[in-house]
């Protein structure tokens, strides 16, 4: 429940934000700004020479506000009065964490997304770019997957909690547009990796997990255990490339419909090829063992980047092996502070 005074503050904030929007000023608040993707956006802006004139960027962590809590969400919007939001904050994990925590992924992400989008609407935020994932697409489908297919069938059972919560962002965005004319949109990245990833072996995604496992196997002279058969296929995107695309979407992309941000279909690799790339980058000389007792998850989720290519035909992605090497080097150099 909010009091009349609190409504006045919200309305005043919405009015100020609308005025700033008219002058072209952008105050961008990035939820989940301390994670893999948030840190990459911060780096890309630094590489550009800092924020553009008229832009101010604020990167939030969960310490600034627990976005599962509506009061904390409103307080952080009140504090920063963003005109634009990049919404990254989420409960995130690899296949094995998803398999055991479907309920938490569903509930936590649903709460975070509803709080962020509704509060953005109430405060008059002009644009929100949220983050979906290609694992939310139907499991039984035709390939390549494209943006029109999000709701065309159930997702893979391993991560249905996360997938349905993420799909609902698209429902939010279309409904805010229909009912209020809001231009809230979403991007759909494939598997992301890079510096500042979560390198936890049990909870994280395949590449950071393999990087830490290889590092330990190298140090202890043991074998590298790759989980599953190594046959599933993935399109990996380097976090720095994704960050450049995120900034473009924020500044230039005006559709409510989501857009897939991915390398081409021809750049899809098997888990074995990904493991080989890590082994090469860390110069691991030991034995590599495939533990077939562990799950493979979804076999593939090959996505089309044709829509992206229509907008940005000349965008260049960092070559996979170069990006893997940079990530491994970052992990080794930052071993003490890396999330693991
Ligand atoms: P990440 O490294 O795990 O970072 C998650 C971020 O969310 C952190 O900044 C974390 O804050 C914040 N956060 C988590 N729970 C929160 C809460 N209750 N309240 C406020 N903030 C909270 O994740 P990421 O890989 O950068 O993912 C960013 C986005 O990309 C997510 O929406 C994810 O679903 C999407 N995505 C990721 C991948 C991938 O392969 N990683 C692929 C496709 C899409 P603290 O640092 O304070 O904990
Ligand atoms: P997904 O792409 O959403 O399925 O999530 P992941 O990034 O966790 O990738 C899972 C795929 O990598 C499955 O085929 C796993 O069997 C395989 N894999 C191999 N080794 C590992 C590992 O150490 N960690 C994880 N998370 N997956 C691994």
From TrEMBL:
This is GDP-L-fucose synthase. InterPro entries: Epimerase_deHydtase (IPR001509), GDP_fucose/colitose_synth (IPR028614), NAD(P)-bd_dom_sf (IPR036291). The keyword DNA-binding does not apply. Belongs to the NAD(P)-dependent epimerase/dehydratase family. Fucose synthase subfamily. Its EC number is 1.1.1.271. Pfam families: Epimerase. CDD domains: GDP_FS_SDR_e (cd05239). GO terms for molecular function: GDP-L-fucose synthase activity; isomerase activity. Transmembrane segments: none annotated. The lineage of its organism: Eukaryota, Metazoa, Chordata, Craniata, Vertebrata. It is an enzyme of class 1 (oxidoreductase). Keywords: Isomerase, NADP, Oxidoreductase. Residues 28-264 form the NAD-dependent epimerase/dehydratase domain. The keyword Nuclease does not apply. Catalyzes the two-step NADP-dependent conversion of GDP-4-dehydro-6-deoxy-D-mannose to GDP-fucose, involving an epimerase and a reductase reaction. Pathway: Nucleotide-sugar biosynthesis; GDP-L-fucose biosynthesis via de novo pathway; GDP-L-fucose from GDP-alpha-D-mannose: step 2/2.
